[in-house]
Amino acid sequence: MASLFDIGKSGLQSYQQALSVTGQNIANINSDGYKRREASLQEVLSGKSGVTGVSDQTGLGVRVESIRRSFDEFLLNKARAATADFEKADTFSANVGQIENLLLPGEANLGSAIGDFFNSLQEIVNSPSDLSARSVALEKGRMLADTFVQTSNLISQTRDGILKDIERRTIDVNILTSEMANLNQQIASSGGKNVNNSLLDKRDLLLDKISALVGVSITLSSKGVAKVSLGPSGNGPLLVNATSSRKLTVSEGAEGLIFATQSPSGVVPTTQVASGAIQGLAEAYSTTSGVVAEIDNLAFRLAHDLNQTHKQGLDLEGNSGKDLFRVANFTLTGSGSNLGDVTASVKVNDFDLIENTSITLTFNDNDKVWNARSRSGDIIASGKSRVSLPGVTFSFDGVANDYDQFIFDPSRGNAANMAFGLSRPQEFAASSPKLISADANNPSDAIFDVSVSGASEASGLPEIASIFSN
User: Which of 412, 437, 461 finishes a domain?
Assistant: First the structure.
């Protein structure tokens, strides 16, 4: 049976330790990753029985059984998932906002430059012989081409910056997962319930940082060892297990960014990067690439349609109109999976005949030919070393493997390479080679309309004069 002095001493020591825990909580209130502790007190029971059994039930005092952390695995995982979703949305919004600032209506953006150029053309229509109106249109045309180039370059630079940010944050993920694997080994070696709370705090802090960068699923073992996998399902590629980690990689593909994990069997592509700051950046990259493609498409259509119309007219010196804009920067983009040693080139025969649609050229090893396919997958042309389409010819040199592939996008890079084609005000072709005017003495209000059409093909039938001559 413990004396009153011993019981009081145990209480004093226990509550002194509990106060130390409280002091530790106060001291670390601003420490990153620190979880609040609580001292769990338990009565010290007597193990004796017999004649003095009743008196022994008074116990031997009190002791600190354990120091518990404020920790709830379910709530933490929910909080991490919410953080990953927020980081995705916040990062996407911040980066896309830069593109919005470039494209929103203003005094010096692409929309106003197009409007100013068409207004200057209208002034030429109103006064075709006025050189001052033509000079203004010449400057507006150059300004429009420069605005296309500047806008495309700025957005492309933004996209390149986003890609570098993704690569940097992917490296951060790999550093954190490597630290997590090392920490797992320390936690496992410390053994069961006696894990140092500081190690567990560090574990949770690392997991918080990883989930903010990329959405993950986390499973804790009974010893506190964390298993981390990509994606919300828990069945995604493994990033961290009990003893090791796997790297996350990112690369550019024909259809966008490709994420992959490095496993013992090699690099395995994954689609499980669904949240976190990295996914927000990936979506911003995709959006920015789409904006660049739309601006390229606008540049192609503007140049293509205006050039066709301008060539139908006559300039101030009676010459046929020239191209108003030059955008041709046609290239073939090879697939990253090509295994052959082959190069491809493009020759533009007639820009006006080129259709604004992407063409996929694939090598067929059985027939030893390159097949050109439209977006719908139909074969529209074939050739062994040269493939010809309206307005353009593709040439191939080297040894190709089966299914080697090149993609031709006629609008790609058009905005960044746009230039105004005229150098003098007199070169604007504002007059038509065919003029129609009504006679002032016409008594009626009849309207005469003329449209230009190509010559019809011969039917092959004999002339009527030869029939009746017999």
Answer: 412
Q: Are residues 53 and 136 in the same domain?
A: no
pLDDT score recorded for residue 470: 44
How far apart are alpha carbons 416 and 152 in whole angstroms? Answer: 5
Yes or no: say if 243 and 185 are a contact pair by the CB < 8 Å rule: yes
Whether residue 169 lies inside any domain: the answer is yes
Say how many domains are in the chain. Answer: 3
pLDDT at site 456: 57
Looking at the structure, do residues 51 and 151 belong to the same domain, yes or no?
Answer: no
Q: What confidence score (pLDDT) does residue 452 get?
A: 64
- 234: Cβ contacts below 8 Å, ≥ 6 apart: 217, 219
Neighbours of 10 (CB within 10 A): 19
Do residue 105 and residue 58 come from a single domain? Answer: no
* Residue 88: domain span: 75-284
DSSP output for 330-343? --EEEPTT--SEEE
Q: Are residues 354 and 279 in the same domain?
A: no
- Within a domain: residue 211? yes
Closest to 280 measured CA to CA, from 456, 74, 87: 87
Q: In angstroms, what CA-CA distances link 167 with 61, 101, 163, 176, 281?
A: 60, 25, 6, 14, 10
Closest by alpha carbon to 68, among 30, 27, 21, 29?
21
3-state SS of 309-320 is: HHHCCECCCCCE
**Does residue 291 sit within a domain?**
no
Q: Is 101 exposed, middle or buried (0-12, 13-18, 19+ CB in 10 A)?
A: exposed
Alpha-carbon distance 425 to 427, whole Å?
A: 5
Which of residues 412, 437, 457 is at a domain's end? 412
For residue 296, being part of any structural domain is answered with no
> Along the chain (470 residues), what's the average pLDDT of each consecutive run of 10 residues?
74 77 76 74 70 60 75 84 94 90 74 92 91 94 94 93 96 95 89 74 92 93 90 89 91 85 85 94 94 92 91 88 84 83 88 86 91 90 91 91 89 88 91 77 79 59 54
Mapping DSSP to helix (H, G, I), strand (E, B) and coil, where does residue 166 land?
helix
